[in-house]
Amino acid sequence: MEVYEEQVQASDGLALNYYHWVPENSKAAIVISHGWSEHAGRYHALAEWFAGQGYEVHALDHRGHGKSEGKRGHVNRWLDYAEDLEQLRLSLDQPHQYLLGHSMGGMISILHLLEYPNRFAAVALSGPASDVSIPVSKLKTFLGKTMSSVLPKLSLTNDIDPSVVCSDPKIVDDYVNDPFTHGKVTARWFNEYLKTIERVKQDASDIKTPTAIWHGAGDTLVEPWVSENLFQNLEMEHRQHKLIDDVLHEILLEPNWLETAEDMTAWLSRF
After folding, report:
1. What is the number of structural domains in the chain?
2. Which residues pair with 6 in a beta bridge?
3. Which CATH number do you get for residue 130?
4. Looking at residue 145, what is its pLDDT?
5. Among 149, 174, 204, 217, fewest CB within 10 Å belongs to which?
6. Structure-derived torsion over alpha carbons of residues 210, 166, 159, 15, reported in degrees to the nearest 10
7. pTM
């Protein structure tokens, strides 16, 4: 298996960090879209396991995350995330492609499905952040909407308790001490996120790509009702929604992640 990273320029010149895990004679490719304030390198064990099953795995650090350039937690348009993801997808030699999106990366995946229909054979979503379940103060909402135009790169603080990320204390400790965990969003990011939420609520029924959702039953960062509501808005022929008992938000880093990964490959391999 070949494992390597590379820096690739986005359409606007920003340097994006790509990760590749490529076994010989792959049967399909899986593209991973990671969550907010993290990076694709956290999925190394998962990617190696997928590769061992015969799948190429490719991922990028979203702009403003990990080893990619850009102000931490900032984006001019959420569409930039989808465009970056499509650029990665287009660069792959393997024509049979699946998409796996976690949390914010799940929302980016949904946006990609709307902007670039039917590019992927099927999609697996892990706790997709398709709505806001953590209460946001009226002041922060006001600042996000107002400052998006005036001071778009104004960073807004977050009050997320790291212990809600995963039930495994080591994963939480690694997350807290990871130099690429930035914990930031900007006014423009937040305002664009709110716009994307409304678009997904309105247009989710337009998605035709087979889509499956897995969500931790104990998730308090993106509560289960978020993906349940998303699932109710989906109308494609092949879709499913599963709650995983006794796990929190990072279902692909939880102690039972292998069971979830096996379930995901069973779903994806149908298409």
Report:
1. 1
2. 18
3. 3.40.50.1820
4. 61
5. 149
6. -60
7. 0.95
- State pLDDT tens for residues 122-170: 999 999 999 998 766 665 665 556 556 555 676 766 778 899 999 999 9
Q: What residue has token string 């984006």? A: 75
CB neighbours (10 Å) of residue 242?
16
Q: What is the dihedral of CA 201, 233, 58, 89, to 10 degrees?
A: -70
Residue ranges in the chain modelled with pLDDT below 70? 135-152, 154, 156-157
Residue whose tokens read 């320029």 = 9
**Exposed/middle/buried for 93, CB within 10 Å: 0-12, 13-18, 19+?**
exposed
132: Cα separation from own chain's centroid: 15
DSSP codes of every residue in 19-48: EEEE-TT-SEEEEEE--TT--GGGGHHHHH
* Separation CA 39–CA 62 (nearest Å): 7
Residues contacting 211, CB < 8 A, separation 6+ = 113, 122, 123, 125, 234, 236, 238, 239
- The rounded mean pLDDT for the chain is 93
How far, in Å, CA of 166 to CA of 135, rounded?
20
177 phi, psi to nearest 5 deg: -95, 0
Measured in residues, the chain has a length of 271
Q: Which two tokens stand for residue 174?
A: 């690694």
Say which residues have a Cβ less than 8 Å from residue 183's Cβ, sequence separation at least 6: 37, 73, 158, 160
Structural domain that includes position 119: 2-268
> How far apart (Å, rounded) are the C-alpha atoms in residues 107 and 105?
5
Q: Is 8 buried (19+), middle (13-18) or exposed (0-12) by CB count in 10 A?
A: middle
